[in-house]
Write a structure and sequence with these properties.
Length: 508
């Protein structure tokens, strides 16, 4: 039996074991040795490494990984776009990383930055994998990564030869990176060792994706890396600050391997498999083994897949309105596509994220245009939550579905706060009281689902409960709350919900 020390430091109620996997060629996997019911923690664990990408260095704390764009600031339970109360201070030495508090700064200094600051001060490093390599070397130097963790880091696969084959000039680039890392950190390892470390990080890292679908950086942990992929996974992972949390999507039997999806498992087979080539394997799951033409058959006659793919290729996050018009405007390739068939749900999600990015750090009260962006975001979140998601993610408490609904509620909350006069938008035929009612309607659903999807003690469930108290002065069991609502109240809410779906362009 393989060494079980990889499980050290993982918080889990269930029995897990590291064993040879039937999914990975020549690799290990994480096996449940007892039954895990649906909607339970498989484990949670502090990741070894969390590094913000270049675009998020100035908005993310280098230690606790709090991000200024979090829709609910998990410490103060306020919506950060309005006033998170969090200010990030630059490190005076390198002027590169930022911290939300002196305690975070002190912690990071001890764990890695004492060695890393000099490196950053000398040269700004754009490559996030190189920064991660340097971080690990610094931790090694300061003795803040244990021998056992270091062993597991170096036991991860690297696929260095495959990288060198598939990416031109890669060998030269990583050689340079390795020699820089060695010189800067003053470590005695050989360049070859560092080159492989770099590839190990590139292959095994995960993207730290926020609730808002914003990717803020990379994260690495050998235990998380050992979980193998399936296009029909039994578990789902997400991040809470610097911690990974893995939860079961459905009941897992004793002896079953824990699987997650490395890519968007709701995409068509060939698209999925195209993405998976970056991990150098051919997925052998049951879903992939089924007839490849299944997905193509779902496309209704007369729809132009190529035109839609072209439109997606030229998608521009910084100009969502242009992409929106090109895809869903008059005569656009997205017009008339079934809203429950990929890539339409993903397009709605991308467009909503694009509009959100435009309003995230702006004061919406001042500009008509910003308010219009909020309504445009709403037009995409509604079909995503109520038409797309139920079709592509049949589990109603799937974490992605709950997050999408949560994002919709946060958007409605924001609209209520800033859109004082809805009559300025003649097309949006809803009164503020109606928006308020539908906000409550969706919020009750999130309140009910978040403890199952993310866990009772998760920041999401906790902040939703707090928002319920704040906005509706109600607390307690979500099921009881729903039951106590009068039928005619629910009827009214449902009526507004349907009208709003219609407004978003959905036939109901
Ligand atoms: Zn912090
Ligand atoms: Zn510094
Ligand atoms: Zn597959």
């Amino acid at each position: 039996m393989p060494d079980q020390s990889l499980l050290d430091g993982a918080k889990t109620k269930t029995k897990l074991s590291i064993e040879t996997s039937s999914l990975a060629v020549d690799g290990l996997g994480l096996i449940a040795t007892a039954v895990i019911p649906a909607g339970e923690d498989v484990f949670s664990k502090q990741q070894i490494l969390n590094i913000a990408d270049s675009a998020h260095l100035i908005t993310t704390c280098d230690c606790c990984f709090i991000w200024l764009g979090d829709s609910v600031n998990l410490r103060t339970y306020t919506i950060s776009a309005e006033n998170s109360g969090t200010i990030l201070k630059k490190c005076g030495g390198c002027q590169v990383v930022r911290y939300c508090s002196t305690s975070c700064q002190r912690k990071a200094w001890k764990s890695h930055h004492k060695a890393e600051c000099k490196v950053y001060a000398e040269k700004y490093i754009e490559d996030v994998y190189l920064r991660a390599t340097i971080r690990l070397l610094c931790m090694r130097k300061l003795g803040t990564i244990s021998d056992s963790q270091w062993y597991w880091v170096n036991r991860m696969q690297s696929h260095m030869e495959d990288y060198c084959r598939s990416e031109q000039l890669f060998r030269q680039a990583i050689s340079e990176a390795a020699s820089m890392a060695l010189r800067w950190t003053g470590m005695a390892d050989s360049e070859e060792v560092i080159r492989e470390l770099y590839c190990r990080i590139k292959l095994n890292h995960m993207t730290n994706i926020r609730m808002e679908s914003e990717t803020t950086g990379i994260t690495l942990d050998p235990l998380a890396a050992i979980i193998n992929h399936s296009c029909d996974p039994n578990a789902f992972c997400f991040f809470e600050g610097t911690k990974i949390r893995v939860r079961s999507l459905r009941p897992i039997v004793a002896g079953e391997e824990i699987t997650i999806s490395y890519t968007d498992d709701t995409l068509a087979r060939d698209t999925r498999r195209g993405y998976l080539t970056r991990w150098f394997f051919d997925c052998a799951c049951e879903k992939c083994a089924k007839n490849a033409s299944d997905d193509v058959l779902k496309i209704p006659r007369g729809f132009n897949v190529e035109a839609l793919n072209d439109a997606m290729q030229s998608f521009d996050f910084s100009q969502p309105d242009k992409s929106d018009f090109a895809i869903f405007g008059a005569g656009g390739p997205g017009v008339g596509w079934p809203a429950d068939l990929q890539p339409i749900p993903n397009l709605h999600s991308h467009l909503a994220t694009g509009y959100r990015a435009k309003t995230m750090f702006s004061d919406p009260t001042v500009s008509h245009e910003v308010q219009l962006n909020l309504l445009s975001e709403l037009r995409h979140r509604l079909p995503l939550c109520f038409v797309g998601d139920p079709a592509i993610r049949p589990i109603s408490t799937h974490p992605m579905r709950v997050i999408n609904l949560f994002m919709l509620t946060m958007l409605l909350r924001r609209i209520l706060l800033v859109l004082k006069d809805t009559s300025k938008f003649p097309d949006f035929k809803f009164q503020r009281t109606e928006v308020g009612l539908v906000y409550k309607y969706y919020m009750m659903k999130v309140h009910e689902d978040a403890p199952i999807s993310h866990g009772k003690d998760s920041p999401l469930a906790v902040s939703v409960a707090e928002l319920m108290r704040r906005d509706f002065a109600v607390a307690g069991d979500p099921a009881m709350m729903l039951a106590s609502m009068k039928d005619d109240q629910l009827q009214t809410m449902r009526g507004i919900h349907l009208r709003m779906l219609q407004w978003s362009g959905m036939r109901v």
